[in-house]
Protein: Carboxypeptidase-like regulatory domain-containing protein
Amino acid sequence: MRILSILTSFLIFCTSGYSQFIRGTITDIVNNNVIANASIYINNSTLGTTSSQGGKFQLHTKGLKKIELIVSHIGYNRYIQEIIIKENEDLNLSIKLSPEDASLENVVIEPYEKEDWKKWGRYFLNVFLGENEAALKCKVLNTDDITFRYFKKSKRLVAIAKKPLVVVNDYLGYNIKYDLMNFEADFNSNMTNYSGLVLFTEKDEKTKKKYIKNREKAYEGSKTEFLRSTFTKSWQEDGFEVKRMYRIYNAEKERMKEKVKLLVNNHIAKHGRFAFNVDSLIGNKDTIAYYHQKSREDNYEDVFSPHFLTPDSIIIATQPTTKDIYFNDYLYIVSKKAKEEKDYMLRYNINRAAYYQRSNLYLVEKNVPIRIFSDGNYAPTEQMIHFGYWSWRENVSTMLPSDYYPEKDLK
Structure:
């Protein structure tokens, strides 16, 4: 497995103003030779270039405030550098790439089974591209570069791509290079996560106007729009209603599950894994009835505050170009501009009229705030998790570059 090399990865703070250009030279860290034709791009954007024969490059940042600069070349470890951009000062970087060590392999403690595309390909595409109108107009061109590992003991599926995935998105009008860093499905918790480094290019500059409506539809109610709206304190104007949400877990159901689990484990320890009836281990009829009653109950109940929040209620610090946000428990976010799509309702067997789109955010670590930027970027990215409608909607088929803005915002 390729080793991810983050050489001199740090936040660069410039002294004033917004930089327009990043310039630099790419060299080999071992012999200091220049590296031509290296790929240089800003992650999750349309902004990319290649190094010249002399190893030099120049890249326009187009007003982005926080970027991940990515440099890659065949035979070298990937280079990633986070940069905070301020005003009127171009950056000049000297970037050194380290050669890959082909002998280094990923150490796997848990044994796994190699699986093929025939078994897991459809599942992968449903997660990666989504299950919606947009996904039907997307195609991954190099699926042969994807391999799967299934860890039977922990019931996990891992997908590995030996080359960046090439995605044609004919719904939003982009060609996408997606360097898959991680893809894991945990079937115990029914949670799937994936991440990667992304470069967008227009399919055709002459025809991109025909994708305007689809791009605006993908943007409306999205997580990016919400974070931009939080930065500008314009939830109401942008159609967002936000409340606090508390999740009360069913402690009694969990207690009964653990009690029966202990009975089962003790039985197996004494008699082995022969067929047996769980009810016979419990014994008491009233207890059996109570156990089955609790088993049918929900694992938790969501309780909502009756009061709407304002952006100021979660913004805890303001800097000239950033804001810090923090909240306890969960945010319950309703987008009043967009309703649930038919594909979403079919996927989850919802038989009612479509509601407004409803999503949730929570912070992984307590007392660790999120820093947000006006373009919708935020850090640390692993600290904030979304679920609800965004879990279904936010995927590669509806993903927009960070330098995208709807037409109305550009006027």
User: Anything to note?
Assistant: DSSP finds ten helices and 24 strands in the chain.
